[in-house]
Write a structure and sequence with these properties.
The protein is mainly alpha-helical. Helices cover 46% and strands 9% of the residues. The protein has a three-stranded antiparallel sheet with strand order 1-3-2. The N and C termini lie far apart (121 Å). The relative contact order is 0.08.
Amino acid sequence: MKADADADVVAPDVTSGAVEAPESQATGEVAASLDEALATVAPPKRTSRRASSKSVAASAEAAASEPSQPDEEPAEDPQLTATRLLERALRLGHDKNDDSEWLHSSAVKTHMRRMDPSFSEKALGYRSFNDFVKARESIAELEETGHERLVRLRE
């Protein structure tokens, strides 16, 4: 009876050192079909992250072909925006300092930069903040005494 039980066991191949089981044939078939399936799938195409001239031209054409939004307001004049910002800063400064109507120009500029970080008198074509204020003499008055520069809102 022991001989019948040993008949299903495969003896090791002495020449190659490998043991061949009946399941290895099925495993080989699965591996072959996997290899075949993977070979048919193409690897993903590598693309450049930079925009090509064709893609830039296509996006420019798409943007040009889209109708502009009628809801959008035209960009406001930067000089007018800066004048309004100066007026707001002076009004807020006067509200804080009830005892003095004159404010240090550096404090006014700092306050303007806090309200609008993009503010720059140089971008508007002025050499200094004092020149910017002098150009707006209809709303602001500048007093220069020694090293002190004081500004107040004209009433």
